[in-house]
Design a protein that fits this description.
By secondary structure, this protein is an alpha/beta fold. It folds into three domains: 9-259, Rossmann fold; 264-341 and 468-545, Orthogonal Bundle (Glutamyl-tRNA Synthetase, domain 2); 345-458, Beta Barrel (Ribosomal Protein L25, Chain P), CATH 2.40.240. 27% of the residues lie in helices and 24% in strands. The strands form seven sheets. Strands 12-25-26-27-23-24-13 form a seven-stranded mixed sheet, with helices on one face. Strands 21-18-19-20-14-17-22 form a seven-stranded mixed sheet. A four-stranded antiparallel sheet has the order 4-5-6-7. A hairpin with an 8-residue loop joins strand 26 (526-530) and strand 27 (539-545). It is elongated. The structure holds adenosine-5'-triphosphate and magnesium ion. Residues 33-35, 43-44, 46-47, 230-231, 261-262, 269-271 line the site of adenosine-5'-triphosphate.
């Protein structure tokens, strides 16, 4: 039984099962409807995995539809990047790429139908007046003085609005529902606004634009979407969407189902706030590895499989919750552990001279590429007289629990030899290099006499090492829910230590076989990825996530 089948089905899949069993539907059609006004983030990934995932599981279809009803904030750049991100996550819409703006004429015709039925009217009130008349949750609203215009007058005015006769904000088209309805969304919501603005898809063809509430349900209806899956904040818009569809003759009525949006700790997910972080220079752009954007996660080395796995594991619920960022990292680790090739990389190098090793000798040691995947094979790593080890792997005056290298002590170099430290060279207080001897009998890291050492360390041969800049990342915010703290701005909680750049790290030469976005493990140091800004003479590497319980795991691998 697959992991998927073992888990009980979520409430949305249960509804779909029921709809298929009862014959309400004989096929399933979903859609992912992004507004092209920003880059996708991991919250969108949840929705993408849900919509495209359901289509796959039920042998149905999933459309990609750009909800581009607002001309002022939307740009083609975002359209392209959203398409790229969905493909990167591993999903495809085939030939079903749609734009809500393609339905502007159809939506307008539907609006005329409502006007003719006396269900919509043109209102000359200002935005302020409309808002003042709306009432509150405890007080009913007031009817607009323009509410009882005749059908003929309304028809005449909406056509002239469309022809461009009026200025921005001079008139709106409103649904005629109920100004004392307990649900504020039902108090004569706006259907059309005048906006003399160019649209990225329709150019200057339109100067009236549909409101989100008017457009959204119609888009799903026009495309024959069987299950319109959206987040909880649209729950109290559903009666309005239903009302619109019910007023129109012969239109398809999709079923809207709401689910909890993904909230992730120590980060923010709103496009507006993400944009602010970039515009105000807190991060280096939309693909900064600290951001929860798909582009950022990709640059951080999080694989599509790990993001899909994460989305599956967190599941679908009816109640909002906050998911621990550490769980996302756990999913990344699980995936990369299986797939990432291993390399040796020394982040903070300390020079080691093996005094009894022949001056010009180089030995190529066989190293396992991935202990979790035999088919990944082996590679050769050079061993020579001068090496680098991690500074933190040496202590001149070792504390009680420090088992790695110190004066007089013997340790194993992974895939190398046993070495023993004989001398420390200092410049003032700073250790410049250390001297060791090696035991030629211990090639490969095993002693024929069975003697044991307490530590196994990684190393890189100095003459063969490749220099790299390595970036280590930390949480972007210091509190779990930076956007949810009363009387504070989310930017008050930026973590000033969210990025650490280390120059002149020393990496084994095989690293040059990798290309940007390739992920790998530096033994004992974590999972990493080649940064796309890497050039032929400047290698840049980002850490995706540290290894947890790294030392224990490493010893375990060594024994195998
Ligand atoms: P934001 O609040 O970040 O601006 P949005 O909801 O306005 O996001 P859209 O482009 O409208 O962004 O989103 C496209 C789809 O992705 C919608 O169906 C929306 O419900 C879903 N979505 C957005 N954010 C999340 C989230 N955090 N969790 C789950 N689904 C989400
Ligand atoms: Mg939205």
């Amino acid at each position: 039984m697959s992991e998927n089948e073992q888990k009980s089905k979520d409430f949305i899949r249960e509804i779909i099962d029921h709809d298929l069993e009862t014959g309400k539907h004989d096929h399933i059609h979903t859609r992912f409807p992004p507004e092209p006004n920003g880059y996708l983030h991991i919250g969108h990934a949840k929705s993408i995995c849900l919509n495209f995932g359901i289509a796959e599981e039920y042998d149905g279809l999933c459309n990609l539809r750009f909800d581009d009803t607002n001309p002022s904030k939307e740009e083609m750049e975002y359209v392209d990047s959203i398409k790229e991100d969905i493909h990167w996550l591993g999903f495809d819409w085939d030939d079903r790429l749609y734009f809500a703006s393609d339905y502007f004429q159809q939506m307008y015709d539907y609006a005329l139908e409502l006007v003719k039925k006396g269900k919509a009217y043109v209102d000359d009130s200002s935005a302020e007046e409309i808002s003042a008349y709306r009432g509150t949750l405890t007080h009913p609203g007031k009817e607009s003085p323009y509410r009882n215009r005749s059908v003929e007058e309304n028809l005449n005015l909406i056509q002239r609005m469309k022809e461009g006769e009026f200025k921005d904000g001079e008139k709106v088209l409103r649904a005629k529902i109920d100004m004392s309805h307990p649900n504020l969304n039902m108090r004569d919501p706006i259907m059309y606004r005048i906006l003399h603005a160019s649209h990225h898809h329709t150019g200057d063809k339109w100067c009236i634009y549909p409101s989100y509430d008017w457009a959204h349900g119609l888009e799903d209806s026009i495309e024959g979407i069987t299950h319109s899956l959206c987040t909880l904040e649209f729950e109290n818009h559903r009666p309005l969407y239903d009302w619109f569809i019910d007023q129109l003759d012969d239109v398809y009525h999709p079923q809207q189902i709401e689910f909890a949006r993904l909230n992730l700790s120590y980060t923010i997910m709103s496009k507006r706030m993400l944009k602010q972080l970039i515009d105000e220079g807190y991060v280096d752009g939309w693909d900064d590895p600290r951001l929860p954007t798909i582009k950022g996660l990709r640059r951080r080395g999080f694989s599509p499989a790990s993001i899909r796995h994460f989305c599956k594991e967190i599941g679908i619920a009816k109640v909002n919750s906050l998911i621990d960022y550490a769980f996302l990292e756990h999913c990344v680790r699980q995936d990369l552990n299986k797939t990432a090739p291993r390399f040796m990389g020394v982040l903070r190098p300390l020079k080691v001279v093996i005094d009894n090793y022949p001056e010009d000798q180089v030995e190529y040691m066989e190293a396992v590429n991935n202990p979790e995947d035999e088919s990944a094979g082996t590679r050769k790593i050079p061993f020579s007289k001068t090496l680098y080890i991690e500074r933190t792997d040496f202590m001149e005056n070792p504390s009680k629990k420090f088992y790695r290298l110190s004066l007089g002590r013997e340790v194993r170099l992974r895939y190398g030899y046993f070495i023993r430290c004989t001398d420390v060279v200092k410049d003032g207080d700073e250790i410049v290099e250390i001297h060791c001897t090696y035991d030629p009998e211990t090639k490969g890291g095993y002693a024929p006499d069975g003697r044991r050492v307490k530590a196994t360390m990684h190393f890189v041969s100095a003459d063969h090492a490749v220099d790299a800049e390595v970036r280590l990342y930390n949480r972007l915010f210091t509190v779990e829910d930076p956007a949810g703290v009363k009387n504070k701005k989310f930017t008050d909680f930026i973590n000033s230590d969210s990025k650490e750049t280390i120059s002149h790290c020393k990496i084994e030469p095989n690293i040059t076989s990798l290309k940007p976005y390739d992920t790998f493990q530096f033994e004992r140091n974590g999972y990493f990825v080649i940064d796309p800004d890497t050039t032929s003479d400047h290698l840049m590497i980002n850490r995706s996530v540290a290894l947890r319980g790294k030392w224990k795991n490493f010893r375990h691998q060594q024994k195998k």
